[in-house]
Amino acid sequence: MEVKYKLTFKGWNNSLKKNKLLGLKCRDCGKFTCPPKMTCQECGSINLEVVEMSGEGKIVTYTVSYVPGEGRYVEAPILIVMVELDEGPWIMGNLTDIDPNRASIESLIGKRVKLGPHSKVYPGDAYSTGEEAQGGEARPTFIFA
What Rg, from alpha-carbon coordinates, does the chain have? Predict the structure, then answer.
């Protein structure tokens, strides 16, 4: 039996470029998987359906990066957050509502965020070549809710 991805990286990337966060809902256990994988991250089922997720949740951890990726020097410093979505999965993205140099545990952990009005799209770097990243890679961008 051949198993195919219900939602490929290319499809997920293209949806982010349109500011839509897609994920997968398991028809067996009801849990959500995002970013997409071939199987449910909870029960391992392949009985999945593509759904649009709310893009809302709370910050569970963060880091500030002062070392940008190759060719992305204008990004530094960058505030990277891990968001627990209301649907359950954790997803990484950028937070743009606060100066990265002012980020603190008190100002971020547990705070409500939502997908911002525009996900950032970056050209591929030396490590992200191929058809999947053609036209650049989208990165989820969050703002305070």
Answer: 16
Report d(CA 124, CA 8) in Å as an integer: 17
- CB neighbour list of residue 57: distance below 8 Å, 6 or more residues apart: 83, 84, 85, 86, 91, 112, 113
Give the model confidence (pLDDT) of 114-126 as tens digits: 998 877 776 655 5
Q: How far apart are CA 8 and CA 115, in angstroms?
A: 20
Please list the residues that pair with 82 across neighbouring strands: 61, 92
User: In which region does residue 139 sit, left (phi positive, over 0), alpha (psi from -120 to 50) or beta (all else)?
Assistant: beta
Strands 141-144 and 90-95: parallel
Q: Across residues 27-41, what is the average pLDDT? A: 95
